């Protein structure tokens, strides 16, 4: 039984090419999620793709505190270059704790905590995300094998657990800068991200 219902789609022109924007509604919560698709992704061949967790600050407010906005742009560029692929835009802001709690977490980080310590101090796990909805969106779109753009081994494992074969992990190291290097180093050191400093 799928955790999402496909609701609507439209064209989405971007500086890198025109994608098809597909909206999904998460059953139970009613939360909306999106997929940006280019080319034919249900032909059984491995699909270049990214599971992008929403980060308002990085994706839309030009934040240098993280790498999300840089990764979002690079992922769309890579898919457009290949002419085929999918980016899931998953409303899991703050590694699943939401924007306001992420701002609380940032405030703790301004006081010297790292991104994991801040989550824990707020009473959350380091990473609250569940990828069931991602697998269900991919299944509904006929994606069976992926070349997954990520540095996060948990995403690779999650997809494999849901029966999506990750034939290749494509590193996506973008936007390292003095404001996010501590965050990136913590992700590598405490969350197992495959990031070269
Ligand atoms: N709670 C919390 N969430 C953060 C913080 N910085 C970024 N995020 C969230 O983390 C998510 C992005 O996850 P990342 O850890 O940057 O990367 P990832 O998506 O797990 O792995 P990649 O696929 O390699 O990018 C987004 O939801 C961001 O809002 C932080 O300091 N605290
Ligand atoms: Zn971010």
From TrEMBL:
Matching InterPro entries: GTP_cyclohydro_II, RibA, RibA-like_sf
Gene Ontology MF terms in the entry: GTP binding; GTP cyclohydrolase II activity; zinc ion binding
Pathway it works in: Cofactor biosynthesis; riboflavin biosynthesis; 5-amino-6-(D-ribitylamino)uracil from GTP: step 1/4
GO biological process: riboflavin biosynthetic process
Active site: 127, 129
Named cofactor requirement(s): Zn(2+)
Cofactor note: Binds 1 zinc ion per subunit.
Gene Ontology annotations for the cellular component aspect, listed alphabetically: cytosol
Keyword entries, A-Z: GTP-binding, Hydrolase, Metal-binding, Nucleotide-binding, Riboflavin biosynthesis, Zinc
Domain GTP cyclohydrolase II per the UniProt entry, residue ranges: 6-171
Task of the protein: Catalyzes the conversion of GTP to 2,5-diamino-6-ribosylamino-4(3H)-pyrimidinone 5'-phosphate (DARP), formate and pyrophosphate.
Family: Belongs to the GTP cyclohydrolase II family.
Protein name, per record: GTP cyclohydrolase-2
Organism placement in taxonomy: Bacteria, Pseudomonadati, Pseudomonadota, Gammaproteobacteria, Aeromonadales
The gene coding this protein: ribA
